[in-house]
Amino acid sequence: MARVKLGLGEGSGAPTSPRRRHSRAFMSGSWEDVAKDLVTMTTTDEKNEHILIGVLAIQGSYREHEALVRKCDPRARAVEVRKGAHLRGCRGLIIPGGESTTMANIARRFGLFEPLRAFQASGKCVWGTCAGLIFLADHIERGSKEGGQELLGGLDVGVNRNFFGSQIDSFECHIPWTATKGSTEEPPFRAVFIRAPAITSAGPSVEVLAKYKLPESKRAKLVGTPDEGREEVIVAVKQGKLLATSFHPEITSDTRWHKLFVDMCANEVPYELPEDGAEELVQSFRPEDLPVFDDSVIAPVTRS
Asked: 158 phi and psi, to 5 degrees?
């Protein structure tokens, strides 16, 4: 039986990347090849100055954001942020979609609010999508959690937390691209709304980047509410170095929103940690005991 050689390798005529040769050298034990390739990789990295974007990675669609950051611009790199020290060197931060209350609780328990506020106060760019928009808003006008919810704030907008309804009311549509100047010829973008908030008011310094025209079915549901008579809502804004969107661009193939944010961050100076944040540790946390389930009922939790 003839042996079939699968894949690309030496002798196939295909170029081999330094990283592939690096891995092969480790397997063959050739440290000379490793050293040569590391020099090549380092020289290449020095020629291309990276734009490091942090993505808050405690809950939500952070991996999707990381992929789009890398895809939208060859200079862009993404780093997952789970504690304040991970912000070192970042020029911008993305707060992804997810569940805003859960994200706030985790951020508080892990001591993240203060480092995030320090990063934002330093003048760095921050982008919030869906739940991230709620995080950045100065006001939750309707739909706030009982007892309130901790926010980063800084964005002069009012948000209706559950304007578009519950999970079952999630939808997607196409909206005209008006986020950049001279963009009348740009194709519309695909907007995915998942239990999404809407921006119901915006201050004078807020630039509106996108609006969603409400269909008749949605306008009918607003009858008898404070939003009765509303024809459209704001779904994307920019204020200084803050960007916010109600929808989830990270779960589409359109990289324009991520490219817009990377361009905002391009001229920023990499973030330097405060002196007291250099060796920051994640606080230990033990959640309360969960209820114990048997076949069909919830058994009471026994506490000592």
From this structure: -110, 140
Tokens at 30, concatenated = 């050739």
Q: Does residue 72 carry a catalytic annotation?
A: no
Asked if 53 and 77 touch (Cβ cutoff 8 Å), the reply is yes
Distance of CA 191 to the CA centre of its chain: 15
The verdict on whether 130 is a catalytic residue reads yes
Mean pLDDT on 285-297: 40
User: Which member of 72, 248, 258, 265 is catalytic?
Assistant: 248
In this predicted model, what pLDDT tens digit does every residue of 51-92 receive, in sequence order?
999 999 988 889 999 999 999 999 999 999 998 999 999 999
Cβ atoms of 250 and 60 closer than 8 Å: no
Set 64, 66, 141, 250: catalytic member = 250
The answer to whether the beta carbons of residues 187 and 175 sit under 8 Å apart is no
**Which H helix or E strand runs over 89?**
none
Mean pLDDT of 91-98: 93
Q: Which of 72, 90, 125, 130 is catalytic?
A: 130
Residue 168's alpha-carbon distances to 22, 129, 250, in angstroms, are 49, 19, 20
The CATH number of the structural domain formed by 49-273 is 3.40.50.880
Domain boundaries, the chain: 49-273
| Residue 265 annotated as catalytic | no
* Mean pLDDT, rounded, of the chain: 78
Between CA 55 and CA 234 the distance in angstroms is 24
